[in-house]
Design a protein that fits this description.
This protein has 70 residues and is α/β, with parallel strands linked by helices. It is 27% helix and 21% strand. The protein contains 2 helices and 3 strands; from the N terminus they run E-H-E-H-E. It has a 3-stranded parallel β-sheet. Strand 1 (9-13), helix 1 (17-22) and strand 2 (30-34) form a beta-alpha-beta unit. The longest helix is centred in the last third of the chain and has 13 residues, at 44-56. It starts with 8 loop residues before the first strand and ends with a strand.
Length: 70
């Protein structure tokens, strides 16, 4: 369920493992895991796998998470 009011939403490039790893420490209301403009074309396949693995491992559990796909 998406909260009625999202005050802050951060885009996180799916190709950046360091940025993905910071999500649990950040206080944004929601995160958009980006596979579009923030990811170089040659890095998109690896980024998809990285995001999938992170979500399966529970990244953002209890937070609002969206994935911007290409």
């Amino acid at each position: 369920m998406v909260p009625a009011c999202l005050r802050s939403v951060l885009y996180v490039p799916g190709s950046n493992p360091r940025a993905l790893g910071k999500i649990p420490t950040l206080s944004a209301d929601a995160f958009i895991l980006d596979l579009e403009d923030a990811v170089a074309p040659e890095a998109k396949v690896a980024a998809r796998g990285r995001i999938r693995d992170a979500l399966e491992a529970g990244l953002g559990r209890g937070r609002t998470i969206a994935v911007r796909i290409n």
